[in-house]
Protein 1
Amino acid sequence: MFLGIGYLPRKTGPRLWRAFDAAEIEADLAHIASLGIQAVRIPLFWADFQPGVGRIEPRVFDRFGQFLQIAEDAGIRVVAGLWTGFWDGALWWPDWGVTPSPFPPHWPLLVNESWLTWGRMRSSFTDERMRSAQRLLLDELVAFYADHPALMGWELLPGFGRLSAAHARDDVRRWLDETLARKQQVAPRQDALFLIAFDALENREAIGPRDILAAGGRPGLSIAAFASDRRRLPLSVAWIAFALKLTLALAQQPLSLFLAGLPTAPPGQRSLSRDGVYYANEEEAAEHLAQVIALARQMDLPSLWFWRWADVPEDHWRVPPYDRPNWRRVTGLLRADGSEKPLVQALTSEASSLDFPDFDVDLDAYHHDPYHYLNALWKEFDFNSR
């Protein structure tokens, strides 16, 4: 099992591609490699790479190539988030992908580094302007770097789970088939990754792991360790074990786990709950992470991904999306000043083996009524795990 992490430079943050700092990236990736982490997941913010629907930005393309070379030199593999997409609680969207509207957007929407208050985004799945723009980046960016040794794959449309849930299932399936067929033509040796939030599996119409596999993609499970979706079970290893076992049964093949953040309280402070989010003290968070790593190894997962390299510095809190207080500011392995949290020690700790019961999944019963079937299965699993 290899370890990966979501990456933005600690100081440059989401201005990574516009204010490219090679020295900062070199130092970060060397530090990441020294911790035994083997891969990073980075967002390719759509407007940075494609300032116009039919126009690409050559300087940013070159900076991406430079990033890949720095990663290769550090022994780090890269998963690149194409057409980003949701990142850090906001939807980063190009201005040419928005239509005027007297209504506010459905999601927190960032355009030109500002919150959009009125307007609607064009659909990534059905709007021909957006589809044309997607094809251009596939043919230019993905094809150009198809054989780069540091690039292990592409996460297509970060936020796929959220965005697809707002569309008809048939439209999303058609988009998957067409998009992955084109990706296969230009980059046949690189994976196409899609993250599925566990709560989406309660929806009968949601795109599931088998849909992605059938189209030629690779699904990954994203789960919020600190809140356990709507159940509010903070730091519950049993819940993560249940989610993995169920998703593996649905996928019928191994898949990777992505921890959707592990927010921590300030150093030296006790754990606290605020606005429905559990902020663990640093030692408690480290103990939980060690248990999750042990579980992932025990279940032979191909990879485990942590959500963030470093906390967001306070001078970034004045800039969207970090100007809206939320837990994403404090989900890093490092503190904002660059010092390591005890979470880092969990990467090499030897946590005890975990014993959780196995269970069979009746696929027909699940597909008939996912919500009630899943919740009944969880109650039985939780009882048997005590």
Protein 2
Amino acid sequence: MIELFFLGVGATFPIKGEGMPCIAIRRLGEIFIFDFGENCQLEFFKSGLGVNKPLHIFISHMHGDHFLGIAPFLQTLSLQGRKKELTIYGPKELRDHLLNTLNLDTLRFPIKIYEVKEGKIVDDKEYYIEAINALHNIEAFSYIFSEKEKPGKFDTIKAKKLGIPESPVRKKLKEGIPVKIGSKIIYPKDVLGPPKKGVKISYSGDTRYNEKFIEKAYKSDVLIHEATFSIDDEDEAELTGHSTSRDAAIVAKRSNSRLLLLTHISARYSNKNKLLSEARELFRRTYIAYKGLKLLIYTDWKALEILFNSIY
């Protein structure tokens, strides 16, 4: 199970109740944050994500609404007693910004800053994170978080027939490691059911419609896509490097995603339901994210439980 927190969902102009872009994933106590606009730390602490948990921050691009909240957040973590190392990923200019804004030596915890290039940027035993070049008016990235497949259910009946004792040998097989019993080699596929699919969450950042992102976001459980403009303003979307609500819906449909959440809607639209309707004409399972929304996502998709309030 993965928890998905919407700490901020707005665009450039600050609107009460929306906040700047900031999406957090919590998986087994480890936290991944995508973009960190101004004042997002307020929602972070309100959400109970903690001070000293493993934490990784991914910045999509160097427009202020997507990164200006990092420096004060790091200072607050230090004042609150954080000790664990924190990693930050983003465009090459991000390092200089942090070095010029903060005296990193005064922080009570170590920081590692990585310059992002397109491709797999994190490869853990249980998950990986990819960066895709976005189509914005400056260097920008979309990000995809994917859990790796998990071994299937252990078949105790088959194990007994194969003479596998109840011992650490079974644990190795459950972890996908072949074992030798006597002169016979037992492979995990001999005693395990079909592998279990992991959760996949795709985050567009700021971008025009992007075919490459569609390819990489294929079969996302949750697709979080910017919808800055209505289809009535698609010329402006193209000019400024943003997407319309219809663009987002096309991405969701063509990527065969299960759920589409719209974010980064321009403040010019007092009636956001117009954009929701535009998107739902092409992709029915579309919703508008709001600040404070929290989702629980299950690997077998038995449920997508919506906490706090209804999603719309």
Protein 3
Amino acid sequence: MKRLLFFIPTLVVISLIAFIISINAPGDPLDIIVSSTLNHDEGVVMNTSKQDKKDFWRTKLGLNLPIFYFSIHPLSEPDTLYRIFNKDERKALERLLDGYGNWIPIQSYYHAINKFSDAVNETINDSLKIPVDLKFEVHALKTFYDDITIQYKLNRVRDLLVASGFSSMNIFNLYNDLRSKYEEVKSTKTSWKNYVPTVTFYGTKNQYHRWLLGDEFGNSKGILRGDFGTSYITKQPISEIIYNRLGWTIYFSLSSIILAYLFSIPIGIKAAAKKGKTFDKISSVILFLMYSLPVFWTATLLLMTFANPDVFSLFKPSGVKPTEGFSSGDSLLQKIMVCLPYLVLPTICYTYSSIAFISRTIRVSMMDSLSQDYIRTARAKGLSEHKVIYKHAFRNSLFPIITMFANIFPLVVSGSVILEYIFSIPGMGTEVINAIDEQNYPMIIAVFTLTGFLTLIGYLVSDILYAMADPRIKHSIEK
């Protein structure tokens, strides 16, 4: 129970790290969502503008909320700056605050840019008298913060207006107002406010609380209830995607580790018992060769040899089952037999390096145990060699095996990226690669969070197995 209680702050730290990564990830999630293919979940916004779609997803994903329960910021910075969602624009406002410290004039300057930009856009849409470059220059003003660049951009905007010969007084009035607002920012400089810290509390309506525990509108249930958010690409719940992908990753992870232990334990024990003899030498050479073979090279070689119609077409080259599915009425045994040609080669590639590593680890651990005094005493008492090795030496050599067994838990989620890609296995490794390639950060963060949680579970299980293997190990604190 004490160890389980220690898990709570550790999980909080993991969740904080995952959340910090998610909010600082490069790119604009709204741009990724809006630019991806629409599906039936977006029916309510399919016929709206791009900005309306962004507003819809900003609310649905909770991106319109403050980041945390509280924020510590200078007196010059308002407590609503998080509402400026564009990162470049928010950064420019923050740098202006660092330089001048007067939010009211800076806010007026920012609103003047938006008002002037809207007027320019409307004019460009109605008439081609104003060059399109003007739209770019005005929009760029929102992302600059140093005086030299801003002055250059303002002069550039004025020159474009004059060169266009446009006579609308409204446009020029808005430009003059914009320029005067910027001059007001410089003339009312109050930098001292940047050195006065202020704390603002937002309560439970913030992005972290929503991400952790969900919101009151039902858009999110929170990661503690298995809701890892929405995929930026498919608009599906991340938990649903993981559920659909997790099965094959679990199968290959568990089957490979079971086969690895079944083969490696007897090999390692016998190699240690026959140290320096023929079996030990031959097994050592074979195991070193197996461990040194790159998995991608082995997988490619097996495919070219045993899944090649020109050589041996014994197994299937990709996938985990027929593309047309199973026949209706097939029993479980029949489905297994149909899938078997697809699974043999990936299982071999998953397993062979583990057999080599675990065998050598067990051999070293067994050799250390066999050199101890209690083994010599057991042999001197007349115990059989089988009982000495398996009852006494092997039990005291279990610690490395238990430690490696704990690593299975995080592998269940992350999977093998290389093998799943080579054999076209629809598992978590393939999904992680796709998520990285498509900047689908909710999926990446979900895998990161689950991996951290399962690593803690693995440590707990290994500690319990340590105590079972050696009763001298106690997890309680004796007074």
